[in-house]
Amino acid sequence: RRRSSAFSKILQICLADYLKILLNSSLFLIFHNQVSQPPTITQQSPKDYIVDPRENIVIQCEAKGKPPPSFSWTRNGTHFDIDKDAQVTMKPNSGTLVVNIMNGVKAEAYEGVYQCTARNERGAAISNNIVIRPSRSPLWTKEKLEPNHVREGDSLVLNCRPPVGLPPPIIFWMDNGELPQSERVSQGLNGDLYFSNVQPEDTREDYICYARFNHTQTIQQKQPISVKVFSTKPVTERPPVLLTPTGSTSNKVELRGNVLLLECIAAGLPTPVIRWIKEGGELPANRTFFENFKKTLKIIDVSEADSGNYKCIARNILGSTHHVISVTVKASPYWITAPRNLVLSPGEDGTLICRANGNPKPSISWLTNGVPIAIAPEDPSRRVDGDTIIFSAVQERSSAVYQCNASNEYGYLLANAFVNVLAEPPRILTPANKLYQVIAGSPALIDCAYFGSPKPEIEWFKGVKGSILRGNEYVFHDNGTLEIPVAQKDSTGTYTCVARNKLGKTQNEVQLEVKDPTMIIKQPEYKVIQRSAQVSFECVIKHDPTLIPTVIWLKDNNELPDDERFLVGKENLTIMNVTDKDDGTYTCIVNTTLDSVSASAVLTVVGKNTLKNYDTRPNPPLDLELTGQLERSIELSWVPGEENNSPITNFVIEYEDGLHEPGVWHYQTEVPGSQTTVQLKLSPYVNYSFRVIAVNEIGRSQPSEPSEQYLTKSANPDENPSNVQGIGSEPDNLVITWESNGPGLQYKVSWRQKDVDDEWTSVVVANVSKYIVSGTPTFVPYEIKVQALNDLGYAPEPSEVIGHSGEDLPMVAPGNVQVHVINSTLAKVHWDPVPLKSVRGHLQGYKVSTVKSLLFSFVKIDHSCKILTFRGNKTFGMLPGLEPFSSYKLNVRVVNGKGEGPASPDKMFKTPEGVPSSPSFLKITNPTLDSLTLEWGSPTHPNGVLTSYILKFQPSNSLILKNLNYSTRYKFYFNAQTSVGSGSQITEEAVTIMDEGKMGMYKENPLSSKKTSNLVKNITTAFHYRNTMASRQVDIATQGWFIGLMCAVALLILILLIVCFIRRNKGGKYPVKEKEDAHADPEIQPMKEDDGTFGEYSDAEDHKPLKKGSRTPSDRTVKKEDSDDSLVDYGEGVNGQFNEDGSFIGQYSGKKEKEPAEGNESSEAPSPVNAMNSFV
């Protein structure tokens, strides 16, 4: 509530001031509308106006005047009767024409030169000649193009010859896509495509030249051109020869302010390199750019100084050639001094000046109310003297609008300036009895805005019958304002402004009240407080009884925390239960409608055990004394206060000007802590008081008590303000700022446009450090100077600084955007820089926006936009972090201090395939005696088309085990693969149960990315591979019924063996033994007793190579030499069935050995620790 109350009071104060300003403005406008004024053109269409033939034609002409002007038009030099043309209308209260071409009327029917005239009883103003032309985008003429047969290494030029359009089209070449250009192949300024030397890869059937007509948004295409390159061995190298320009010299004429483009394209093998020099001089810095692989030299914003001979040199290892281009810079007319409106009273004298420059020098001609002055009605009060019209003893009938036309062969300038002869008695625009309130010791500015013709004389009186005000204690401004530089309490009273000319006299009374300044008589002090304690800062104020103060407390220059522990009283701030975060600087700000004062103090929060030994800020210095008083210097001395356990490092001296800014302390200087006296430089006409602040490592002390006052004598300033800058805040203004160099000074602010040979424009301001120049062109350089002055004179002539008017958004997008893809995640983008003139501001860099734009069947769409900014005038940049196998579009924008310009056309490019990321997971399930099931997830980022998966596995305990039953732990390495290569792998470990075996070598298995499961077996162990996309399979070996059945069979076999053993001991034979002896099963062989390995994997077969590419025979039997562990073989049996998702219905671990149609085992198996499974 306390904050809202304070801010609401400030808002009321600001609103009241705004209403006063609004009232004054309204009174001025009311008066202004009562005074006659000749017409002034305020808006018009461009001189060369190209219109879209598909839309209505709008020709602008707006003007102001009193009474409001009427409008008329001429077309091709004769009167254009709008009423007789049903397709043409004029907007109400305007001169703007609208031509309706939607009713089948062709825009070409309204081509011509138009001129608008705005007329009232005081004169007539005219617009520029506005040339209306519809844009054109004609088709290419039909022509038969013969194929170009070129020998390898020869040069070649493909002519474009686009149709003549309006405006001229933008030319570009393409084949089946955008045609990449290089030092060898590039497009010339005329649109032709130049090959310095042709290569076999240049053979194409479809070189196509395109013409883009931006105005009508159409693109025209030339017939395809065929190029066939035939090779001859060896290819002969050639020295450089210029393809364009031809000859050894040429000439070029360019206009001042335009962009100069010079081009040299050379043939040769190896491809020549181009270099540019200016004979007898240097290429202009900051305005020179090289384009088209240095074949084009571009100089922006050319001036007459850029005239000269420019040489291009083409060089390769066989020699060089050169061409000299003689450049002449001409200039269409530009203003030096444009004529300005002139308001005169009857009998007065005046001049209109019209000065322009150009190359050649422009001729100046004058018109009166749109009629050449030579045939206009005579006026005895005027005399034409070249570029000046001199008026003597003008009369009311002399009012007219004069036009100055400056023209040469390259263009013209037209300016309207009126001469308004008025006979008006004085009028005072400032409201009667207006109340002015100021603080004692500050300046008082009392307005007396007036108008009259002749210009009235202004006099000021104090009181109803007081004497006229004169003397150095007052300043009388040209606009009628009375300034009292140092208002005192006795300055309060009634002031009368009297305005008189020969037609009459008027006066106005205003009131001035001088208030006592607001002061903080007890300031907050530095505090060191323990945590959880309470602290209070005082802020006791003294103010004028008629002013209502508001007190605001800030912490570290921000609002106080919204915390109930902070209690704001009338004259203090209390913080309850202090915490560490309450550390900081607390400021008391006191505001009234007229002044504001503040004081600050620092709060340091410490622990309970720290306070006793806490080093604190020093005590303030004592006994300040002034000695050695001189006009411009004085000596100040003091006694240091207590250091409080931390040595004083330096003293800061501040001063107060009690005459101009009472209560405001300014930094003066500082000295080392060992020094207690200082010689101070002083400014004239300042009432000085000084105070000293001690500083140690902990911080600053409270200020000392102020010294006695010392008033210096008046004198003209001896130095000018510092830090003068000119920076526009809007596209049409220039904000000039500076740092004041003393109280009570006025400042003469001067500016002129750089490189225009214009005269200085100046204004004198007081009590401000900023001046805004309005109506400036966008972002042009200005020369600026600010000179201090007072009643006694001026400071020395100031130095000039360069500023710029306000920036606007850039107008042009970068062109010729090219993308070179370096690899699957990195690309390089090139672009042509925009002309600096089109940047319309300080070039900060180029912004490249990249968006992923195409959807692949296995890649998720990502519409996120990645933006990279390249600082400075760069023409290329790297684009890291791209995703492989993706399609992108990008555009480039130029950036200035105002913002971003338009985007270049989207440029599409694709990144090649990359290696995939690792599979999202690898999981091993269902471990059994002789098998494992592997499951995996597809890679999160395939980065291409997955071709297969790679599985590597080996035992993680590589030992030779004998006569033991031992668990073998296998380690699996799994990764995905594209055509580029393999991605990163993931690992997993699992245990199978083996009787005994030899753990051996390491094996790699490529798995097809399209299959979802597989079965691979070695001697003792089978692995089931399954992608997570397959349905989960049931392992029969883990089923309870199967385990029970196997136990029952084992028990029966045991009983049978016991019976057989008993019978054998009795010497008998049994049938089973006879059958085993007679029919040994070749698939079941005993283990060798010598090495503990399985019999069928003998040492002789351990190292046999694996046979690849074999498949199950068509008779569905399995041959031992034609083993292949393919899923195709597992799934193509008579009983093989698939689920809908492609997984097997049957179990891999089912029938194997006795059903050859469903199984497939290799007699050439690898070692027990290696297996290969192919999903191919």
Distance between the ends: 78 Å
Structural class: mainly beta
Shape: flat
Spans of 5+ residues with little confidence (pLDDT < 50)? 1-32, 854-862, 957-966, 994-1003, 1010-1034, 1068-1176
Give me the CATH architecture of the largest domain, please.
Sandwich
Oligomer: single chain
What is the highest CATH level, the class of the largest domain? Mainly Beta
Number of helices: 6
Q: How would you explain this protein's 3D organization?
A:
With 1176 residues, the chain is mainly β. The protein folds into nine domains: 37-134, Immunoglobulin-like (Sandwich), CATH 2.60.40; 148-331, Immunoglobulin-like (Sandwich); 338-421, Immunoglobulin-like; 424-515, Immunoglobulins (Immunoglobulin-like); 519-606, Immunoglobulins (Immunoglobulin-like), CATH 2.60.40; 622-711, Immunoglobulin-like, CATH 2.60.40; 725-797, Immunoglobulins (Immunoglobulin-like); 815-910, Sandwich (Immunoglobulin-like), CATH 2.60.40; and more. It is built from six helices and 86 strands. The strands form 24 sheets. Strands 2, 5, 6, 9, 10 and 11 form a six-stranded mixed beta sheet that branches. Strands 12, 14, 17, 18 and 19 form a five-stranded mixed beta sheet that branches. Strands 21, 24, 27, 28 and 31 form a five-stranded mixed beta sheet that branches. The longest helix has 31 residues, at 2-32. The chain is flat, with a radius of gyration of 48 Å. It starts with a helix and ends in a 45-residue tail after the last helix. It is a single-pass type I membrane protein. Residues 702-726, 1160-1176 have a biased composition (Polar residues).
